[in-house]
């Protein structure tokens, strides 16, 4: 690597240990919007609107919920990250209705069981792409086993994952997470990469019936190298790497991996394709 690589990313604020609130803000302000084309494609295909009662598993800081509400849907969200949930609550603060009375805030919770009890729901979405870590499919199956029994009898469930590695430029960058997480004593977590049948495997184990699929282009674009590093760190895929090494080392190697995707104007751009699987209960 040339010495100029390190200078493209300044280890200043982002080099300090990041707390959960900082990572959640970076997710909401930088990274979450990268998946907006995926949300929109699913909502358009399923004709999400005023008749839709949606449960979002892994709702993050609420962008997917906000887009569904904009179509008139009623939404419930679940996420295990309390800092992301706090931002989602702020985003989804209800406005007054047309008579001036306070509208009802959507339920946002860390408990899948509590969210499921607020149903029945017509649509369950899992917009956090699976196939990134070794056990993320297991976690999703458990969540679906809790959520699906309370759903509408013919509910739709949407699972999402990364597309083929050869069509996802970010895949090579995310490999840094898996490499650094391995401390020499075996895999330490982080990125494992998608497999061809990840979504179908989860659907089968959760007792769902696949009923169509699609692919959506979701390019990752950042204003500069610092934004790219902060955005990718906010995905939580690098947490095992930070534990195995340190944050400065992870940032340095992440910036080096991003360098081929840096444009002459300083922006960072990576083309990606994501896949979704539509299932019925």
TrEMBL record:
Residues 1-11 have a biased composition (Basic residues). CDD domains: AdoMet_MTases. Residues 1-24 are annotated as: Disordered. Keywords: Methyltransferase, Transferase. Gene3D superfamilies: Vaccinia Virus protein VP39. One of its GO terms (molecular function) is methyltransferase activity. GO terms for biological process: methylation. This is Class I SAM-dependent methyltransferase. It comes from Streptomyces drozdowiczii.
């Amino acid at each position: 690597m040339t010495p100029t690589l390190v200078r493209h990313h300044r280890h200043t604020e982002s080099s300090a240990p990041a707390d959960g609130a900082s990572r959640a803000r970076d997710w909401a302000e930088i990274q979450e919007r990268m998946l907006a084309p995926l949300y929109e494609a699913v909502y358009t295909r399923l004709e999400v609107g005023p008749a839709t009662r949606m449960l979002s598993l892994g709702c993050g800081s609420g962008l997917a919920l906000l887009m569904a509400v904009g179509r008139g849907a009623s939404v419930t969200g679940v996420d295990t990250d309390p800092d992301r949930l706090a931002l989602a609550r702020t985003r989804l603060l209800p406005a007054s209705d047309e008579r001036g009375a306070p509208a009802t805030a959507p339920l946002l919770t860390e408990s899948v069981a509590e969210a499921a009890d607020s149903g029945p729901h017509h649509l369950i979405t899992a917009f956090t792409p699976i196939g990134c870590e070794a056990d993320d499919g297991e976690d999703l199956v458990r969540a679906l086993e809790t959520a699906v029994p309370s759903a509408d009898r013919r509910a739709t469930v949407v699972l999402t994952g990364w597309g083929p590695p050869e069509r996802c430029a970010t895949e090579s960058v995310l490999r840094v997470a898996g490499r650094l997480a391995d401390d020499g004593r075996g895999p330490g977590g982080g990125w494992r990469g998608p497999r061809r049948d990840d979504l179908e495997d989860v659907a089968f184990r959760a007792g769902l019936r696949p009923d169509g699929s699609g692919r959506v282009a979701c390019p990752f674009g950042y204003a500069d190298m610092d934004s790219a590093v902060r955005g990718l760190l906010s995905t939580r895929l690098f947490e095992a790497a930070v534990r195995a090494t340190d944050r400065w080392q992870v940032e340095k190697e992440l910036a080096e991996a991003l360098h081929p995707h840096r444009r002459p104007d300083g922006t960072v751009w990576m083309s990606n394709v994501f896949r979704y699987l539509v299932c019925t209960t």
